[in-house]
Automatic annotation (TrEMBL):
Protein name: Methyltransferase domain-containing protein
GO molecular function, one term: methyltransferase activity
InterPro entries referenced in this protein's UniProt entry, alphabetically: Methyltransf_11, SAM-dependent_MTases_sf
SUPFAM superfamilies: S-adenosyl-L-methionine-dependent methyltransferases
Domain Methyltransferase type: 114-206
Amino acid sequence: MSPDAATLVDPRVAAIRPFLDLLRSPARGTPLRLDNGALVSEGGERYPIEESGVALFVESTISVDAKVQQAHYDRIADAYVTNLGYPHTREYTAYLDQALLTQLPATGLGDIAEICCGRGEAVELVAGRFRRAVGVDISLNMLKAARKDHQDPAIAFLQGDATRLPLADGAFDSVFMLGGIHHVNDRAALFGEIARILKPGGRFYFREPVSDFLPWLALRAIIYRISPTLDHLTERPLRYQETVPYLTGAGLTLSSWRTYGFIGFCLLMNSDVLIFNRLFRFIPGIRGITRAFTRLDDWITSRRGWTRRGLQVVGVAEKPRAAAA
Ligand SMILES: C[S@@+](CC[C@H](N)C(=O)[O-])C[C@H]1O[C@@H](n2cnc3c(N)ncnc32)[C@H](O)[C@@H]1O
């Protein structure tokens, strides 16, 4: 087989080629081309593509926080995926998914990016609604789990730092982050990158832990320190008053902020932290019980004065269209 034919059938190349226009070198901000199973920038940096088709953009210059998170998630990836598979966790997540889905437009989502994608949660949730999807995460073990579950050639996965995205300017119609913002301490850099990669008129959808209600703030201060699956130095739930100026500073306009999850979330959604919670899967009718708790939580967090007191925020921010000249 000639070298050219070999390149044509190289699955690593086939996985990345349809996404070339959406990528750029994180070091120089310049376009990339394929060369012998790697992505190469004009300046000569080479970014290898791993056997599973994940392109590796992790350089020596990634942020200190990203390095900590990379080691952390590479270590806990298997446990993380297992914890999300319990029936009560799935049932409660379905409720939160619905809250996010109600924010999406009826039309298609275009080209989407999921930042801190882990196992590709958003990509899965909006399957069939996008043209192409790119997932970026710092942990290769999380990305391998994502690639295993999502073989669709319209989805690419990249290993990269959310504060130095290997993605092109103004290339994406929609950006998603589900449980990723609170892992990135440098919110100015993160939101700056999201604004940069969005097209004018593009939307940023997020769902994150939020601690605007004092009891949750206090509880999390403890939990983040004692849980082996959380890292209190690099993980920080959102606060409304802190987040809005960072979004605005990046040029994004917040259009929706509503919280969900209360006592039911506390009990049923922390199987990584509350070991006894894992035993709930053996309770007969646990799915029905969970649904009852979602209704209770929904009732509480939709009361007047309580819409910002939940444990998870679902938000939407928009990159304004350029003002007409
Ligand atoms: C709580 S998980 C959520 C992932 C996804 N929503 C899921 O459920 O699979 C957070 C993810 O953020 C990633 N992460 C943390 N810091 C990051 C950074 N600076 N750049 C890219 N990914 C990061 C971690 O590797 C992890 O996969």
